[in-house]
Every structure is written in C-alpha cells, then in structure tokens.
Amino acid sequence: xxxxxxxxxxxxIAAINDSQELxxxxxxxxxxxxxxxxxxxxxxxxxxxxxxxxxxxxxxxxIGVLKKDKYRGxxxxxxxxxxxxxxxxxNEIRKRERSGQREKQFESxxxxxxxxxxxxxxxxEKQQQLRELVYKLGEPCRKILMLFYYENLSMREIVDYLPYxxxxxxxxxKYKCLQQLTGLIKSNPQLAGQINEINK
Length: 200
What we know:
The structure is a single chain. By secondary structure, this protein is mostly helical. The chain has one domain (9-102, 117-197). It contains 9 helices and no strands. It starts with 8 loop residues before the first helix and ends in a 13-residue tail after the last helix.
C-alpha cells in the first residue's frame, strides 16, 4: 500500500480509481488539501464550518470528475480542488442571496456562464444516481440533503421544514451527512462507480 503523504498527482489519480486504495487516497486528499481549500473559502467570507462542509462536497465531486474522465491534468490536483470548491462556494453564496431576496422579488434568471466543473457540480446535485446514494444514508440525512440540493432551500428555510432548533444545527447535521456519504464510498468503493453516470 502507498504510504499516505507520498503520492504524486498521477499516483493519487490511480489510487482513487483503484478500489483497494480509494480509502487511503481520500485520507490523503484531506491530509494534503483540506487546509488550503478551507483557507480559500474563509477568505471569501465563509466560516470554518462552511469550509469543512464545502471540502466534503469537493472531494465527492473530484472523485466523480475522475470517474467520468473529465480531469485533463492541465492544472495540479491542488489547483483543481480549489476550482471545484470555488464553484461550490460561489453557488452557495448565490443560493443564500437568492433566499434573502425571495420575499422581495421573483428571481428573473440564473447565470449561465459557468465553467465545466460548475456544470458538473450542478448535474452532480440533480441527477437520479446521486439521489439513490443519498437514500442509502437514512431518512434524516435524506431529508436535509434533498431539501438543500433538490429543493434549493437555505439553512434557514430548512429549519421551517424539519424539527431542528436553528440554522447551525442544520448546518452541522448536513456536514455529518456529507461525512457519512464519504464514508459510504470509502467502505464500499464500488459505489464510486455509480458517480460515473451522474453527468448523463
């Protein structure tokens, strides 16, 4: 087994695509890239909790990008992860802004000028096979993730739908659900293959 901390970009990609090394490769992603990605998120107004939440999603999306063979290697993995995280975070900022404006005016449209990674993320959130993975997490996680990704509700709005005390409790629960989703893939690497078809 490859010692964590010794991967080159090429070796890391190979490890993610190898069911025997996927668990260790995911650990490596967290070890090497979580802090730099979190610094970017916090530099753009996010909290530490936001940064951890976004990195969970970033790892899942990165695995999907590799499985779909969309990573062209034109940038380092570190740069690519920051790009994914940036798109996720900017989408979240827009979602929060839309939530705040919803009572004042009807949303007239959405910005269509997004990079390939952002388009992948959009599909990643909406398609049926991700929905099937979410269902494996159980009802509490299913409800939160469905309301957040599929119904496009903010944390504040989710509090009105589910029996949680406040937005921070919902945010913490969502983060734990994303951890469970990562753990599901780590404990059963064959599930990562399901991400292959999400973008179709």
